[in-house]
Structure prediction request, 307 residues.
Amino acid sequence: MRIIRGTKNITGPIPYPVIAIGNFDGVHVGHQALFRKTAELATENEGTSIAFTFEPHPLKIIAPEKVPPLLTHFKKKMELIESFGINLVICADFTRKFADQQPRDFSKNILFEKIGVKEVVVGFDYAFGRGREGTIPYLKKMGEEFGFKVHVVDPFQVNGQTVSSSHVRELIESGEVEASSQFLGRDYSITGPVVSGYKTGQAIGFPTANIDTSKVQIPGTGVYAVRVVHEDNAHDGVANIGFNPTFNRDRLSVEVHIFDFNQVIYNHEIEVQFVARIRSEKTFKSADDLVVQIKQDIDKAREILKH
Prediction:
Protein backbone atom coordinates (compact mmCIF):
# COMPACT_ATOMS: atom_id res chain seq x y z
CA MET A 1 0.00 0.00 0.00
CA ARG A 2 1.26 3.45 -0.93
CA ILE A 3 0.87 6.44 1.40
CA ILE A 4 0.75 10.04 0.12
CA ARG A 5 1.24 12.67 2.83
CA GLY A 6 -0.38 15.97 1.84
CA THR A 7 -2.78 16.60 -1.07
CA LYS A 8 -0.14 18.69 -2.85
CA ASN A 9 1.82 15.46 -3.38
CA ILE A 10 -0.93 13.70 -5.33
CA THR A 11 0.32 12.99 -8.82
CA GLY A 12 -1.90 11.43 -11.43
CA PRO A 13 -3.41 9.93 -13.25
CA ILE A 14 -4.75 7.35 -10.77
CA PRO A 15 -6.53 4.42 -12.47
CA TYR A 16 -10.30 4.59 -11.74
CA PRO A 17 -10.06 5.99 -8.20
CA VAL A 18 -12.63 4.72 -5.67
CA ILE A 19 -12.29 6.59 -2.40
CA ALA A 20 -13.48 6.12 1.19
CA ILE A 21 -13.34 9.34 3.20
CA GLY A 22 -13.06 9.61 6.98
CA ASN A 23 -10.86 9.95 10.02
CA PHE A 24 -11.02 6.18 10.72
CA ASP A 25 -9.70 6.34 14.30
CA GLY A 26 -9.80 2.81 15.70
CA VAL A 27 -10.54 1.25 12.29
CA HIS A 28 -13.66 -0.35 13.79
CA VAL A 29 -16.04 -2.75 12.03
CA GLY A 30 -18.01 0.18 10.55
CA HIS A 31 -14.85 1.56 8.93
CA GLN A 32 -13.97 -1.95 7.76
CA ALA A 33 -17.32 -2.14 5.91
CA LEU A 34 -16.41 1.09 4.06
CA PHE A 35 -13.00 -0.28 3.08
CA ARG A 36 -14.44 -3.60 1.85
CA LYS A 37 -17.02 -1.74 -0.28
CA THR A 38 -14.29 0.54 -1.66
CA ALA A 39 -11.99 -2.39 -2.51
CA GLU A 40 -14.87 -4.30 -4.13
CA LEU A 41 -15.84 -1.36 -6.38
CA ALA A 42 -12.21 -0.75 -7.35
CA THR A 43 -11.66 -4.43 -8.21
CA GLU A 44 -14.82 -4.52 -10.35
CA ASN A 45 -13.49 -1.57 -12.37
CA GLU A 46 -9.78 -2.52 -12.40
CA GLY A 47 -9.24 0.63 -10.41
CA THR A 48 -7.50 1.91 -7.27
CA SER A 49 -9.00 1.60 -3.78
CA ILE A 50 -8.18 4.72 -1.76
CA ALA A 51 -8.66 5.78 1.85
CA PHE A 52 -8.66 9.56 2.25
CA THR A 53 -7.91 10.50 5.84
CA PHE A 54 -6.44 13.32 7.93
CA GLU A 55 -3.49 14.04 10.18
CA PRO A 56 -3.69 15.31 12.88
CA HIS A 57 -7.15 14.46 14.24
CA PRO A 58 -9.47 17.28 12.98
CA LEU A 59 -10.50 18.22 16.54
CA LYS A 60 -6.87 19.11 17.31
CA ILE A 61 -7.33 22.09 14.97
CA ILE A 62 -11.03 22.83 15.36
CA ALA A 63 -11.44 22.33 19.13
CA PRO A 64 -8.13 21.35 20.80
CA GLU A 65 -9.75 21.11 24.24
CA LYS A 66 -12.06 18.35 22.94
CA VAL A 67 -9.51 16.17 21.13
CA PRO A 68 -9.71 12.60 22.46
CA PRO A 69 -6.78 10.23 22.99
CA LEU A 70 -6.31 8.23 19.80
CA LEU A 71 -7.51 4.63 19.53
CA THR A 72 -4.88 3.92 16.86
CA HIS A 73 -1.62 5.71 16.21
CA PHE A 74 -0.73 6.43 12.57
CA LYS A 75 1.40 3.34 11.88
CA LYS A 76 -1.19 0.94 13.33
CA LYS A 77 -3.99 2.68 11.45
CA MET A 78 -2.12 2.27 8.17
CA GLU A 79 -1.47 -1.45 8.83
CA LEU A 80 -5.14 -2.04 9.56
CA ILE A 81 -6.38 -0.07 6.54
CA GLU A 82 -4.07 -2.05 4.25
CA SER A 83 -5.40 -5.33 5.65
CA PHE A 84 -8.88 -4.51 4.30
CA GLY A 85 -7.81 -4.22 0.67
CA ILE A 86 -6.90 -0.55 0.30
CA ASN A 87 -4.17 0.19 -2.31
CA LEU A 88 -3.48 3.85 -1.52
CA VAL A 89 -3.89 6.18 1.46
CA ILE A 90 -4.03 9.92 0.91
CA CYS A 91 -3.39 11.62 4.23
CA ALA A 92 -4.34 15.27 4.09
CA ASP A 93 -2.59 17.79 6.34
CA PHE A 94 -5.51 18.96 8.46
CA THR A 95 -4.79 22.65 8.95
CA ARG A 96 -7.07 25.59 9.73
CA LYS A 97 -7.06 26.43 6.01
CA PHE A 98 -8.11 22.87 5.14
CA ALA A 99 -10.86 22.98 7.80
CA ASP A 100 -12.19 26.27 6.38
CA GLN A 101 -12.66 24.93 2.84
CA GLN A 102 -16.10 25.29 1.34
CA PRO A 103 -17.60 21.84 0.58
CA ARG A 104 -17.70 22.68 -3.13
CA ASP A 105 -14.01 23.62 -3.15
CA PHE A 106 -13.08 20.26 -1.58
CA SER A 107 -15.24 18.42 -4.12
CA LYS A 108 -13.87 20.35 -7.11
CA ASN A 109 -10.22 20.97 -6.17
CA ILE A 110 -9.39 17.74 -4.34
CA LEU A 111 -11.82 15.01 -5.36
CA PHE A 112 -12.33 16.02 -9.00
CA GLU A 113 -9.19 17.86 -10.12
CA LYS A 114 -6.45 16.32 -7.92
CA ILE A 115 -7.70 12.73 -7.66
CA GLY A 116 -10.11 12.40 -10.59
CA VAL A 117 -12.40 10.34 -8.38
CA LYS A 118 -14.96 8.01 -10.01
CA GLU A 119 -16.77 6.68 -6.93
CA VAL A 120 -16.94 7.88 -3.32
CA VAL A 121 -17.84 5.69 -0.33
CA VAL A 122 -18.91 7.34 2.94
CA GLY A 123 -20.63 6.44 6.20
CA PHE A 124 -24.26 7.34 6.92
CA ASP A 125 -23.26 10.32 9.12
CA TYR A 126 -20.58 11.80 6.86
CA ALA A 127 -20.28 15.59 6.63
CA PHE A 128 -17.45 17.67 5.19
CA GLY A 129 -16.15 21.17 4.59
CA ARG A 130 -16.32 24.24 6.79
CA GLY A 131 -18.52 23.68 9.84
CA ARG A 132 -19.53 20.27 8.41
CA GLU A 133 -21.76 22.17 5.96
CA GLY A 134 -21.31 19.52 3.25
CA THR A 135 -24.10 16.97 3.77
CA ILE A 136 -24.53 13.66 1.97
CA PRO A 137 -27.25 15.11 -0.34
CA TYR A 138 -24.81 17.93 -1.17
CA LEU A 139 -22.04 15.41 -1.89
CA LYS A 140 -24.39 13.59 -4.27
CA LYS A 141 -25.13 16.92 -5.98
CA MET A 142 -21.37 17.47 -6.36
CA GLY A 143 -21.15 13.97 -7.82
CA GLU A 144 -23.68 14.88 -10.49
CA GLU A 145 -21.72 18.04 -11.33
CA PHE A 146 -18.25 16.47 -11.35
CA GLY A 147 -19.08 12.99 -12.61
CA PHE A 148 -18.62 10.68 -9.62
CA LYS A 149 -21.00 8.23 -7.93
CA VAL A 150 -21.66 8.35 -4.18
CA HIS A 151 -22.26 5.22 -2.08
CA VAL A 152 -23.54 5.58 1.49
CA VAL A 153 -22.86 2.65 3.83
CA ASP A 154 -25.65 2.03 6.34
CA PRO A 155 -24.98 2.22 10.09
CA PHE A 156 -23.20 -0.88 11.34
CA GLN A 157 -24.65 -2.29 14.55
CA VAL A 158 -23.35 -4.72 17.18
CA ASN A 159 -25.87 -5.98 19.74
CA GLY A 160 -28.28 -3.20 18.73
CA GLN A 161 -25.67 -0.46 19.28
CA THR A 162 -24.45 1.66 16.36
CA VAL A 163 -20.69 1.32 15.99
CA SER A 164 -18.70 4.54 16.43
CA SER A 165 -15.22 5.52 17.56
CA SER A 166 -16.69 7.46 20.49
CA HIS A 167 -18.63 4.41 21.75
CA VAL A 168 -15.53 2.21 21.42
CA ARG A 169 -13.59 4.83 23.40
CA GLU A 170 -16.22 4.79 26.18
CA LEU A 171 -16.02 1.00 26.45
CA ILE A 172 -12.23 1.06 26.66
CA GLU A 173 -12.22 3.89 29.22
CA SER A 174 -14.49 1.80 31.44
CA GLY A 175 -12.30 -1.31 31.04
CA GLU A 176 -14.84 -3.22 28.94
CA VAL A 177 -12.22 -4.57 26.55
CA GLU A 178 -14.13 -7.75 25.73
CA ALA A 179 -17.10 -5.66 24.57
CA SER A 180 -14.84 -3.27 22.64
CA SER A 181 -13.32 -6.20 20.73
CA GLN A 182 -16.75 -6.91 19.20
CA PHE A 183 -16.85 -3.36 17.82
CA LEU A 184 -13.24 -3.40 16.63
CA GLY A 185 -13.18 -6.94 15.22
CA ARG A 186 -9.97 -7.54 17.20
CA ASP A 187 -8.60 -7.06 20.71
CA TYR A 188 -7.89 -3.43 21.56
CA SER A 189 -4.15 -2.75 21.73
CA ILE A 190 -1.73 0.01 22.61
CA THR A 191 1.81 0.39 21.32
CA GLY A 192 4.66 2.23 22.93
CA PRO A 193 8.29 2.07 24.01
CA VAL A 194 9.30 0.32 27.24
CA VAL A 195 10.48 2.93 29.74
CA SER A 196 12.10 2.78 33.14
CA GLY A 197 9.66 2.49 36.06
CA TYR A 198 9.79 2.15 39.84
CA LYS A 199 11.00 -1.49 39.53
CA THR A 200 8.43 -2.45 42.18
CA GLY A 201 7.44 -5.60 40.27
CA GLN A 202 11.04 -6.74 40.03
CA ALA A 203 11.51 -6.22 43.78
CA ILE A 204 8.61 -8.57 44.59
CA GLY A 205 9.52 -11.22 42.01
CA PHE A 206 7.38 -10.17 39.04
CA PRO A 207 9.41 -7.96 36.68
CA THR A 208 7.28 -5.72 34.50
CA ALA A 209 7.68 -3.70 31.31
CA ASN A 210 6.43 -0.14 31.81
CA ILE A 211 5.03 1.44 28.67
CA ASP A 212 5.00 5.08 27.57
CA THR A 213 1.33 5.60 26.70
CA SER A 214 1.22 9.39 26.45
CA LYS A 215 -0.58 9.56 23.09
CA VAL A 216 -3.11 6.73 23.18
CA GLN A 217 -6.39 5.75 24.81
CA ILE A 218 -5.58 3.73 27.95
CA PRO A 219 -8.16 1.23 29.22
CA GLY A 220 -9.71 1.83 32.64
CA THR A 221 -7.69 0.97 35.73
CA GLY A 222 -7.47 -2.71 36.64
CA VAL A 223 -5.72 -5.97 35.87
CA TYR A 224 -5.97 -7.53 32.40
CA ALA A 225 -5.06 -10.74 30.59
CA VAL A 226 -2.96 -9.57 27.63
CA ARG A 227 -0.90 -10.67 24.68
CA VAL A 228 2.34 -8.79 24.11
CA VAL A 229 3.91 -8.51 20.66
CA HIS A 230 7.67 -7.90 20.72
CA GLU A 231 9.71 -8.13 17.51
CA ASP A 232 6.84 -9.99 15.77
CA ASN A 233 6.61 -12.63 18.51
CA ALA A 234 3.49 -12.88 20.69
CA HIS A 235 3.75 -13.66 24.40
CA ASP A 236 1.05 -14.12 27.05
CA GLY A 237 1.05 -11.84 30.06
CA VAL A 238 -0.86 -9.88 32.64
CA ALA A 239 -1.08 -6.06 32.72
CA ASN A 240 -1.80 -3.67 35.54
CA ILE A 241 -3.15 -0.22 34.76
CA GLY A 242 -3.33 2.07 37.76
CA PHE A 243 -1.65 4.09 40.45
CA ASN A 244 -0.09 1.27 42.52
CA PRO A 245 -2.01 2.30 45.66
CA THR A 246 -0.23 -0.33 47.80
CA PHE A 247 2.99 1.66 47.26
CA ASN A 248 1.35 5.13 47.41
CA ARG A 249 2.15 6.10 43.83
CA ASP A 250 0.27 9.00 42.26
CA ARG A 251 1.14 8.54 38.58
CA LEU A 252 -0.93 6.35 36.27
CA SER A 253 1.18 3.57 34.79
CA VAL A 254 0.75 0.63 32.43
CA GLU A 255 2.93 -2.29 33.55
CA VAL A 256 3.06 -5.68 31.88
CA HIS A 257 4.42 -8.89 33.33
CA ILE A 258 5.27 -11.14 30.37
CA PHE A 259 5.12 -14.85 31.15
CA ASP A 260 8.29 -16.95 30.73
CA PHE A 261 10.25 -13.99 29.37
CA ASN A 262 13.59 -12.64 30.59
CA GLN A 263 14.90 -10.34 27.87
CA VAL A 264 15.93 -6.75 28.61
CA ILE A 265 13.70 -4.63 26.37
CA TYR A 266 14.13 -1.03 27.56
CA ASN A 267 13.43 1.40 24.68
CA HIS A 268 12.02 -1.44 22.55
CA GLU A 269 8.53 -0.88 21.15
CA ILE A 270 5.90 -3.41 22.20
CA GLU A 271 2.22 -3.85 21.43
CA VAL A 272 -0.08 -4.87 24.28
CA GLN A 273 -3.37 -6.51 23.23
CA PHE A 274 -6.06 -6.43 25.94
CA VAL A 275 -7.97 -9.72 25.90
CA ALA A 276 -10.02 -9.57 29.13
CA ARG A 277 -10.29 -7.60 32.37
CA ILE A 278 -9.59 -9.78 35.41
CA ARG A 279 -10.34 -7.38 38.29
CA SER A 280 -10.32 -3.77 39.43
CA GLU A 281 -7.34 -2.11 41.11
CA LYS A 282 -7.23 -2.36 44.90
CA THR A 283 -4.98 -1.53 47.83
CA PHE A 284 -3.29 -4.35 49.78
CA LYS A 285 -2.18 -4.23 53.41
CA SER A 286 1.28 -5.53 52.55
CA ALA A 287 3.54 -6.51 49.65
CA ASP A 288 3.05 -10.16 50.69
CA ASP A 289 -0.71 -9.86 50.22
CA LEU A 290 -0.09 -8.29 46.80
CA VAL A 291 2.18 -11.19 45.79
CA VAL A 292 -0.57 -13.70 46.67
CA GLN A 293 -3.03 -11.75 44.49
CA ILE A 294 -0.58 -11.43 41.58
CA LYS A 295 -0.12 -15.22 41.56
CA GLN A 296 -3.91 -15.61 41.37
CA ASP A 297 -4.08 -13.01 38.56
CA ILE A 298 -1.42 -14.89 36.60
CA ASP A 299 -3.30 -18.19 36.97
CA LYS A 300 -6.52 -16.52 35.81
CA ALA A 301 -4.79 -14.86 32.86
CA ARG A 302 -3.18 -18.14 31.76
CA GLU A 303 -6.61 -19.79 31.87
CA ILE A 304 -8.23 -17.01 29.80
CA LEU A 305 -5.41 -16.94 27.23
CA LYS A 306 -5.62 -20.71 26.61
CA HIS A 307 -8.83 -20.16 24.67
Summary: The CA atoms of residues 225 and 304 lie 7 Å apart. The chain is about 30% helix and 25% strand.
